[in-house]
């Protein structure tokens, strides 16, 4: 199947047509991104800073680049000038660094806080307690060059759909709970980034506003 057919098929299955599609292009060549771009896609997700920067240099400037992977603090500076949204912010230290680099280039960088919703230990993210600690602290109020526009989560890698949907539901409920609170000025929780190729429909059932889809658009990744 071609990228065009894949995109068509995905869009046709969306439960919520307004849910934003982030085309996850990691490991795929710039030619594939250009092909999707020519079909109207403007949001692309990458998980390695070097790859992201190299692709951004060659590809059209109106692409909205999403950093979806685990981000190391020392790499923030390379993408501060152009990154559209950082999905995986999982510590205050990282948020501070993003703020610092954003200030240097006179920008405000939009971020999502990654919340740990999966069973696996290995997935990054805040747990609920850590999130509330962040909100209660002083530092968060000083970060004027970042804006937290939502939450991001990755469900457990399992065939058990009930469990996956429950995890997404938990993230939705957390967002709703936070929205009831008196949040720092640099918070405007709108987005819920959840759902990938295997579980984006379950995520949309739980009000996901952004799905990050790679394999179903570009095919299997070859890591060699
Ligand atoms: C790779 C990746 C995706 C896309 O995964 P697919 O299963 O190929 O759709 C989504 N989110 C994150 C954080 C990823 O690293």
Contiguous uncertain segments of 5+ residues: none
In CATH, the homologous superfamily goes by the name Alanine racemase
Task: Give the SSE order as H and E letters.
Answer: HEHEHEHEHEHEHEHEH
The global form is: globular
Alpha-beta content class: alpha/beta
Per DSSP, the total helix count is 9
What strand line-up does the widest sheet have?
7-6-5-4-3-2-1-8
Number of strands: 8
Indicate the radius of gyration in whole angstroms: 17 Å
Named CATH topology: TIM Barrel
CATH class: Alpha Beta
Mean pLDDT: 96
State the distance separating the first and last CA atoms: 22 Å
Pfam families: Ala_racemase_N
Cofactor: pyridoxal 5'-phosphate
Family: Belongs to the pyridoxal phosphate-binding protein YggS/PROSC family.
GO molecular function, one term: pyridoxal phosphate binding
Describe the structure.
The protein has 224 residues and is an alpha/beta fold. It has one domain: TIM Barrel, CATH 3.20.20.10. It contains nine helices and eight strands. It has an eight-stranded parallel β-sheet with strand order 7-6-5-4-3-2-1-8. Helix 4 links the parallel strand 3 and strand 4. 37% of the residues are buried. The protein binds pyridoxal-5'-phosphate (PLP). Pyridoxal-5'-phosphate binds next to strand 8. Keywords: Coiled coil, Pyridoxal phosphate. One of its GO terms (molecular function) is pyridoxal phosphate binding. It comes from Mongoliibacter ruber. Pyridoxal 5'-phosphate (PLP)-binding protein, which is involved in PLP homeostasis. Belongs to the pyridoxal phosphate-binding protein YggS/PROSC family.
């Amino acid at each position: 199947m071609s990228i065009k057919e894949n995109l068509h098929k995905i869009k046709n299955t969306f439960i919520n047509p307004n849910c934003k599609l982030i085309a996850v292009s990691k490991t795929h060549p710039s030619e594939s991104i250009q092909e999707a771009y020519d079909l109207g896609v403007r949001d692309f997700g990458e998980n390695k800073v070097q790859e992201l920067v190299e692709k951004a240099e060659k590809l059209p400037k109106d692409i909205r680049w999403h950093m979806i992977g685990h981000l190391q603090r020392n790499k923030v500076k390379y993408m501060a000038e152009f990154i559209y949204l950082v999905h995986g912010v999982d510590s205050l230290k990282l948020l501070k660094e993003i703020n610092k680099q954003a200030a240097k280039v006179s920008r405000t960088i939009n971020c999502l806080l990654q919340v740990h919703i999966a069973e696996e230990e290995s997935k990054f993210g805040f747990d609920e307690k850590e999130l509330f600690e962040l909100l209660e602290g002083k530092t968060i109020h000083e970060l004027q060059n970042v804006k937290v526009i939502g939450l991001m989560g990755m469900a457990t890698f399992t065939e058990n759909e009930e469990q996956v949907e429950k995890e997404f539901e938990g993230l939705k409920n957390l967002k709703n709970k936070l929205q009831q609170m008196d949040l720092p000025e640099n918070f405007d929780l709108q987005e819920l980034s959840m759902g990938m190729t295997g579980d984006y429909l379950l995520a949309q059932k739980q009000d996901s506003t952004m799905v990050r889809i790679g394999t179903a658009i570009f095919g299997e990744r070859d890591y060699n």
